[in-house]
Amino acid sequence: MRLIHHATLLLIATPIASAAQGGARTGNGYDFELLELDASARQSLLLGGGRMMPRHSYRASVTGHYENQPLLLMRNGVREGALIRDRFTLHAAGAFAATDKLEVSLNIPLLGVQAGDFGPDSPIVPPAGVGIGSPTVSARHAILSTRAGLLKEAPVDVAGELGLSLPFGSREAFLSDPGLALAPRVVASAELSSAILSVDLGALLRTVPVSPFPGQSVGSQLRFGVAAATLGPRLRLEAGLKAVLPLDGNPAALELLLGGRYASTSPMEVFLLGGPGLGTHPGSPAFRLLAGIAFAPRK
Question: Is 235 left (phi over 0), alpha (psi -120 to 50) or beta?
């Protein structure tokens, strides 16, 4: 028995009208993705942390990302079908430590391939089946550190970050916003015996609100997360919980992800994450799976 709710995108209660091209538009596309992988992955694959990478070190990764039913279409509480039933995205990411206190990163959803329940003969015109996502550039600066000599020594590592999502992706595939989006956040981490705990508090601030359908809007949101990861020399397991609290009246979303990574004696590591979405916010899938490989020379 299913106990989770999939993401819902509500239509207005009036009947669907056919457009001149033979179908009703799916509305104004936007980037509904709720998941952000940390490019440096210093503490957690899922969340940012306050512990910075050593100076001039870097990490590059490629991740395959599958989402099941991230965007459903509802009318009067009844499911009309999945606008996006299956989505696969290939992400490329890189992080570089310019100094011991400053990291810069880049995340690019290189390719999104997706399919839904609405075909060419449907009164609903489906989103495009292929597209490119919006790139995000970020800068993270240390605020407090447990490392002697870096900053005033503290019991926890804390950093501030600002991300900028650029509107260069495919809106017709629901992979890009119509305007810039800012992502400020504060991240912290603390080592506890053989594990490390990370906390991530941030927001997504859209400069241009979007209206997927008439009478509906999607705006800014608060984002919270907590993760715990083991500190093994090669195998590291982790569990993370992420929550999204919209500021526009839309329902909240919650996701649980479990996984791990394995680093060989070379600079390569492989990783796997997966888990369910708990909530009815657009972008919260029934479940998601991620698998990838990273190149991260150790210093």
Answer: beta
